[in-house]
Amino acid sequence: MLQAKMRRGRPMKLKALLVLGVVAAAGCGASTNTQSTFEPHGKIARDDKNIFMGFFWVAAVIGVLICLAVVFAAIRFRERPGNENPKQIHGHTQLEIAWTILPALILTVMGVFTVSMIWDQAAKPAGAMEITVTGKQWWWQFQYTKVDGQTKQVVTANELHIPAGKPIWLTLKSDNVNHSFWIPALAGKKDNIDGHLNNIQMIADIDLLKQPESKRWFDGQCAQYCGLSHADMRVKAKVDTDDEFKTWYASQLTSWTSDAVAKFKKWDDIYTCSSCHYIQGLAKDNTDAKVQSGEAPVPINRGPNLTHLADRTSFAGAKYALTLDNLTQWIYDAQAHSAGEFGKPMECPNYQKDKVLCVGMPAFKDWPGHKMTMAEAKEIAQFLLDQKST
Question: Which CATH class is domain 35-72+94-236?
Answer without folding.
Answer: mainly beta
